[in-house]
């Protein structure tokens, strides 16, 4: 296969979530001497962007997003160390967690996959994450964005607790805060003082990119 054929097949197989074939094509590309960033930026990321677009149009649903995301995640596992060696630029660093009192993580994990697919470096603190752990994570990883997920209405107040903890630690102005989860609304996000809200994984990626671009433009980066 030519490089162009490999890229086209990578795009197509990621779109339908054929994980084994995506991994096989990734290895083929590497064996043929293709740069890992070429496969990432010319096939894998465009394919996942198309998945997101189809989801927003109602042509794809969560299961299709999940299998496409997982197919890409397999390729990313193979390419990530090689991308690090080449010094490929990431879009930004995203620190993710499900809030204290909540153990739900399917939505969070899907957002993580989509963010990684879009070129973000994602650090996942897991579930049941306390405000103290959030502050420690921000100090350690210095993310551009901090994301909080809540699936239960009873745990949504932890958004405010986390934001207050960041404020108290003098870190609130250093990070963008995004929130999401099944019961969360834009109105609630505004009420707790979050910078961004997304109803689904595809929107989360787009919103995260917008927020980073706006912040960097404001500081002249």
Break the fold down into its secondary structure elements and pairings.
Blueprint: H1 3-15, H2 19-31, H3 36-57, H4 62-86, E1 93-98, H5 106-117, E2 121-124, H6 131-141, E3 145-149, H7 158-168, E4 176-180, H8 186-192, E5 196-197, H9 201-219
Parallel strand pairs: 1-2, 1-3, 3-4, 4-5
Number of helical regions: 9
CATH class group of the largest domain: Alpha Beta
Query: What is the CA–CA distance across the termini?
Result: 41 Å
Q: Strand pairing plus helix content: what structural class?
A: alpha/beta
Looking at this structure, what is the CATH superfamily of the largest domain?
Cobalamin-binding domain
Q: Radius of gyration, Cα only, in angstroms? A: 18 Å
CATH topology of the largest domain: Rossmann fold
Protein name: Cobalamin-binding protein
InterPro entries: Cbl-bd_cap (IPR003759), Cobalamin-bd (IPR006158), Cobalamin-bd_sf (IPR036724), Met_Synthase/Corrinoid (IPR050554), Meth_synthase_dom (IPR036594)
Domain B12-binding: 91-221
Keywords: Cobalt, Metal-binding
């Amino acid at each position: 296969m030519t490089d162009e054929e490999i890229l086209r097949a990578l795009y197509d197989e990621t779109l339908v979530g054929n994980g084994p074939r995506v991994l096989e094509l990734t290895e083929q590309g590497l064996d043929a001497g293709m740069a890992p960033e070429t496969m990432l930026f010319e096939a894998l990321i465009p394919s996942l962007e198309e998945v997101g677009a189809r989801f927003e149009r109602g042509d794809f649903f969560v299961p299709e997003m999940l299998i496409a995301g997982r197919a890409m995640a397999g390729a990313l596992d193979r390419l990530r160390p090689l991308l690090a060696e080449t010094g490929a630029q990431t879009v930004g660093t995203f620190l993710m967690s499900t809030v204290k009192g909540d153990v739900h993580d399917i939505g969070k994990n899907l957002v993580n996959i989509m963010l990684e697919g879009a070129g973000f470096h994602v650090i996942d603190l897991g579930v049941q994450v306390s405000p103290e752990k959030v502050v420690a994570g921000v100090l350690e990883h210095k993310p551009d964005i901090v994301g909080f997920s809540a699936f239960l209405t009873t745990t949504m107040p932890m958004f405010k607790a986390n934001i207050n903890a960041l404020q108290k630690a003098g870190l609130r102005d250093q990070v963008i805060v995004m929130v999401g989860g099944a019961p969360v609304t834009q109105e609630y996000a505004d009420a707790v003082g979050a910078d961004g809200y997304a109803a689904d994984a595809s929107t989360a990626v787009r919103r995260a990119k917008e927020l980073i671009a706006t912040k960097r433009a404001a500081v002249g980066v």
